[in-house]
Amino acid sequence: MALATPTPRVGELLRDWRQRRNLSQMEVSLDSAVSSRHLSFIETGRARPSREMVLHLAERLEVPLRERNRLLLAAGFAPEYRERSLEDEEMAPVRGALDRFLKAHEPFPAIVVDGGWNMVAGNAAIGLLIEEIAPELLADPPPNALRLTLHPDGMAPRIVNFAEWSGHLMHRLRRAAAITADAGLRGLHDELAEYPDVRLDPPQGHGVGEEIVLPLRLRRGDDVLELFSTMTTFGSAVDITLTELSVEAFYPADERTAQLLRQAVGA
């Protein structure tokens, strides 16, 4: 007979988030205008926080919206934040904005990923990045962008600076897992770490002082594309789906790459 797992109390969850942020009770107290004594009582279960207090502390601790709902439920309150599918009618303005951004970024590649790095949208130029990826990696939508990049049947054989790029991505993934406490991201990290030649961190001292940003050097035929990327998020979103969406836009790092991309996409 399986034993039920006890539901964590809100105080325990708040303490976990405080410790995850490497903050003392005194630091949180000063930042949130809540006495350290009262905060201690909340964490130990001696005091029951109000709904407003839970949200106030969650804001100060930068708890993701999905986890704020969990805090509210643990405190006996209804969730505050909704999670809509990107396909919902209410999300039509968001889809339109994303489509316009992706199209406007052509002939340079751009993708939209969710909180698990699953690729939910991309523009026409993304075909240049995934053109030699094994079909089975693209078979189950949405494909995972990190898996497509680091899998030996994905982009990995074409990445000239694979040690640096894989270390960069793994460092980002590990940081995201730590910030969000997302078990799915931790599992993805463990999976990718087992792929051949994947680095957990960029090689120490490589390229220091030589480059402004770390480029992705991707072999395409007899050419090598040099790209760097930026990440854009919905900073003012109050919907869980939107807060977890990011747009990764790739830019040419040199004029030769820009010309090759324009020729390939027909721009």
From TrEMBL:
Native species of this protein? Patulibacter medicamentivorans
Taxonomic superkingdom: Bacteria
Q: Which Pfam families match?
A: HTH_31, MLTR_LBD
State the name under which the record lists this protein: Putative transcriptional regulatory protein XRE family
A Gene Ontology MF term for this entry? DNA binding
Residues in HTH cro/C1-type domain copies:
14-68
Q: Which InterPro entries match?
A: Cro/C1-type_HTH, Lambda_DNA-bd_dom_sf, MLTR_LBD
